[in-house]
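#dry-run=false #mode=assembly
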Amino acid sequence: MLEETIQRTKAYYCLECGICTGSCPVSRYHPDFSPRLMVERALLRPDGPSLDDREVWSCLTCGTCSARCPSLVDYNEFTRATRVAARAEGTAGIDTHAGTMIAFMELQTNAAGERDLSWIAADVRTSRKGKVLFFTGCLPYFGVVFRDYGVDTVGMANSTIRLMNAAGVRPVVSCGERCCGHDPYWTGDARTMKTLARRNLEMIKESGAQKVVFACPECYVMFKLVYPKYFGVLGFDVAHVTEFLAPRVAAGKLRFAEREGVVTYHDPCRLGRYAGVYDEPRELLAAVPGLELVEMPRARAEALCCGSSAWVSCTRVNKQIQLERLAEAADTGASTLVTGCPKCNIHLACAAKDGDLEKKIEIKFVTDVMAEALGS
Amino acid sequence: MAVRRGDPNILAFVCSWHPLTAADNAGEDGCRYSPRTTIVPVECAGRVTVAAILRALLNGVDGILVAACGRGDCHYSNGNESCEKVVEEAREIMRIAGLAPERLGFDLSSDVDGAHFASLVSDFAGGVSKLNGRSGNARAPAKKRRAGGGTGGKRRAGKRTTGKRGKAAVTRSGAKRKPTAKKKPAVKRKLAAGKKPAARKKPAARKRPAARKRPAAKKRPTEKRRVAKTRSKSRTKPAAKTRSTKRASRK
Amino acid sequence: MSGNEPASSKVGVFLCECGGEIAGPIDVEKLSRDLSSGRDEVSIHVTPYWCSLPGRRRLREAIEQEGLNAVVVAGCSERTHGAIIAEAAREAGVNRNRVAIVNLLEHCARVHPGRRPAATSKAARMIRMGVAKAGGARPLETITEDVHRSAVVVGGGVAGLSAARALAAREIPVVLVEQEQELGGMLRGVYLLFPSYGDSARFVSEMSDRTVTHPGIDVRTGTTVTAVSGHAGAYTVTVEAAGASEDLSGGCIILAAGADVLVPEGLFGYGVNPRVVTQYEFEDMLREGLSDVRRIVMIQCVGSRNAERPYCSRVCCTATVKNTITVLEAVAGAEITVLTRGFAEYVGDLDRARESGVKFLRYDPERPPEVADETVKVFDVMSSADVAIPYDLVVLATPLVPRAGTAELARTLGLPVDDHGFVAEPHTKLRPSAYAPHGVFVAGSAHWPATVTECQSQAFSAASRAAELLDRGTIEREPMIAVVDELTCRGCGECVEACAHDAPCLVEGEDGIKISKIDALRCVGCGVCIRVCPPSAIALQHFTEQQLLSMIGAAAGT
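#status=ok
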């Protein structure tokens, strides 16, 4: 099986140049880990890589190494396939938050019923039927777990719909929605992902929506890149909320009031390197009069990962990456770090919560910033 | 499998201090509850995680009951209160997932009376079978329901029946218990006072003499005398009568 | 990581018939057939009694013959039979942590009579749960640490003094810390003792002298405790005296911090009417000799057994009755009326007081007595009549209340505190004078209002428990504790917040990120830290999440 993975991910082409290790945020703090080392172990060991190695779970799948690899080795896919194999051997990474996250995601495969939608704010307009569907993802669930982290993910979902309303769209929000399966997928559990995906696709088909809008880039790339691999052409368009809004803002459909302040934008791995969406969030921020956008040294395709992924193996190494990113953001002089991903927001807020940072910086999700600026 | 239809599949996380003592006493006192209720003993209720609760649901159980010691009685100071937070969090997650939060029961009690435990699990099972009787679990308020809910609802509807049987499950042990106790008073290791509701709060130390060591101790006083009897009885009429006979554990 | 299980688990299931107690309601034959076929890779053994001597011999033989490394005994309660079974398994080389006891008797056989097939299938689920637990467990060794053979006694009242002297008598070095300048605590304000009617002052001074002059007791008066760290066998108690701070070390701590008497501001004219005093103040008046006081009205339960303080303070009624007798002997023609709400506790010498002419009237808390200028007006419940009693002095029996700071100190020590602020004893009946932190013992009124005799006996009990621990030389602890995966810990401090026993503490790691270290002897293994650890770096080594989850799978029958 790994033989096939090595072929598929072009791991054979590794030139041992070391660019991946140099790019890897994990390797910087954790010398035991390197993308190349993972591949080499797989290539050189006659019995394949050692699957009970905890480093199997250390990779962030941020894609920085793959983006720079001269041989175009797909390290992310390599990591994922290794995890599938590891899981088959009965080993697993350390699920964070005592396993709550993965548990509620798996719960949605068969046990869950119709999703509760009472989180939708009173002023927010949604429809039963329509061409546009807003895929909420895990935001209501995260609201329960991260209440004490100063991260309001339910608010993020509401601000997203609020912006869509302002653009004249009343999206469908479905109680038949399930987790997108991103995290099970990236922790090597494709079966759970497929079960969830099937239910989601069925739900969207029933709703008749032609465009699905996402606040979470992870859900977005699942629909955009992964679901088609398993289920073929989906039959509807997908867009991240920033992609959905940017042309409407440009067309003058949304107006923003003056806001003082300097912000910097953090490119999420999924939205940036995976989906190639770099400009739209910046266009949105630029549309707020008075708001100044400054860039971090590592932005766009070079952006440093928020330091954690798929609720697995989020260790002190990850914390150091997060603190590095927060320091980089604070050094720009910005007062607010805007993320394009609710999960980046959670991860960075978690590190900031107890990180004894020299310079504090506020962390906000892009739709929260935009919805607050909505005005005449 | 000769499981009675309608008995919900219940998993009970039971703290090894007061609640498990009550569960042991339920056996000692001849109380009854549904055999579809399985006890998972945990050292302290504080050990139960949200993931454990959700995984149990994922494994197809109909209801989960968490039994912790009463407020102020946690052997470890705050295990029961910590558990309360876990239960709240799990219930919120269940609510979002469209699972009735009533499927997760929580009891904070230091009552070590067997009847307390039996009625606790039976009452809970009764509530859960009512939920099973409903069509589906969806709790999304109708007003808020949006389109595309086709995949929700009807969770393993085939397995569910109405709550008819639930009533039978709520076999209050009281009625059964009395004659049992009368016939063979020696069976009861507990003090008579333990039966009075007023004296329930901290009844006699029937068991659990030491914390972790759990010494073999407490040889039952009536052991030898009863061996022969138990044996002959158990051979002839196993199910019905041996229950009231003193169990013979010899060394 | 999940790789906690030993490379290969060989689990033996030992099914107990318990005579016919289990074998009746449960179809043991079918059960063992079900378990030995198919997916359960276990060996099954059945016998009437595994707890019996021949049963345990067979258990050992089976373990040795089959090379088992985990054992599940499906019989009765772990708390009654766990230890002997574990001992038998240990003799045959199976680690304690890899022995699981499944209570088929009380959790299945006896509660499901007449439902044999269902009970049998439940028994199979229970046993599979035991297999998951024992088979997934790591072998663990007992934790051993040296004990510092000394004790710190906090409080120099009768309980503290008694405990200190009892320990010193066993040649255990003691440091006694008292916040007041003088020893004796509450007894310093008492005139005569019950039941001896001996002079309290003499009793206190004799006791203090013997303590102060004892070579084995280091008495520190005017000293307060500011912090406590360490664990059973090696505590560090930080104290402060005259602005200077000092660390005292002790293998155990006896908390005898006492209680305060409630000052009933605003009740029954106290603080306004100079002829209204508390029973505790009255003791002083008795010592000095009463003058111009002949008619006394005493009111019981002042400020207790009400919504704010629902408890009975226990010692006040005896004190009142003792004082009525003291008055009657000192003042000729004294007239004493005691207004009670009924006696909730044993009251010594009540009959003697009655025979000596003390009147006891019962008042209704809904219609409390009223202290007027010349008389106390009260509705006498027994005669259903309003009565006015002329008085020279009104004496109020007020309850003992927890001393300020005791609750905080208790929490520092990891002791539970009850709703009123007294130190709670977790298992008054199941495990008297045992507390979850192994090296802390409580005596006297810090725990609950106590008489002198009770203080002394609690002190002796605490001292003997402490001596038992200290004389062992080493402290052994079953390895049921939480452990931190140091490569994973993010040093966020959530565990420190959650732990009631101060087991984890944060230290700076080499990489500049803090790291949580758990003190093995402070940790009680409850697992509340598991829930709060964001990266799931903490695990209970004796009962991992994997074990729990596979038990759940087994219990749910999947």
